[in-house]
Amino acid sequence: METTAIVLAGGLGTRLRSVVDDRPKVLAEVAGKPFVAYLLNQLEEADVREAIISTGYLAEVFDEVLGDQHGSLKLRYVHEESPLGTGGAIKWAGQHVNTPLCLVLNGDSYVADHLGNYLDWHQQHEGDASLLLVGVPDASRYGTVQLDELGNVTAFLEKRPEQTAGSINAGIYAMRTDLFQQIPAGKCCLETDVLPEWIKSYRVKGFVSDSPFIDIGIPEDYRRSHQFMERFKRV
Which domains occur in the chain, in start order? Predict the structure, then answer.
C-alpha cells in the first residue's frame, strides 16, 4: 500500500541545547551527517515516496540542509507557527497526506529495523494504528507499553524510578490517515492524550523489535550516538 511519512521535527530540544545550540536537534551532526538523514535513508529503503517534515524551531534551516529531495524520497515541509505537541503536529501535517496509510516518526530517535518489514506487518495484522516497540533493559526513562496475547496495546504504563526491563515506545507509528480527524484540535500529545483514548475504540497493535535503538534527546545519548550510528552509515 502506498504510504506517506510524517517526520516530527518541531521540538525545541531544550535538554540538548548545552551541546547543540545552533540548529534543531534532529539536524545535529551525528557521525558526519544530520541525524534525521538516517531516518530518511530508512524511509527510502522502505519504498516510501514522500516525507512531510513537521518543523518548528529554526524551521528555515531545514530546506538549506536537506533540500526537497533525499535520493528517491520527496521532501515537503509543514511549519508549526507555535508548538502543537506530537498529536497536534500530526494533525497539522496530516492535512497534506493523500495516501490511506501514514508512517509517523519522531525525528530524534532511531531504530535499526527495516521499516518496510514493519509496514508489511502492520497491514497483515489489520490494525487501525500500531506502534513499533523495542525491548530495553532499563525502561525507567521512558515508561512501557503493555500488550495482550494477540499483540493489542492494552495500557501505557508511567515511568518508574527503579530500573526495570520492558517494551518502550520507539516513536514510530503506522496509522490510517482518516484517524487524523480523531486527534483533538490544538496542542496535544500523541503519547498521553491520543493513544490512550484510541486503545479504547480502535485496534492499536504493538510490533516488538529487538533491534538497536537510540534517542538523542539528552546530551549523554547524543554523545553516544556518534559511535552508535557509525554502524548504520551508507557506504
Answer: 3-129+171-197+212-230 (3.90.550.10)
- The overall pTM is greater than 0.70: yes
Residues of the chain above pLDDT 90, percent: 75
Residue 87 and residue 190 in contact, taking contact as beta carbons nearer than 8 Å: yes
Please say whether the beta carbons of 36 and 9 come within 8 A: yes
Q: How many angstroms separate the CA atoms of 82 and 79, rounded? A: 9
Helix (H, G, I), strand (E, B) or coil at 176: strand
Rounded Cα distance, 39 and 57, in Å: 19
Q: Which three cell numbers stand for residue 42?
A: 530508512
Alpha carbon distance 15, 20 (integer Å): 9
Secondary structure (3-state) at 215: strand
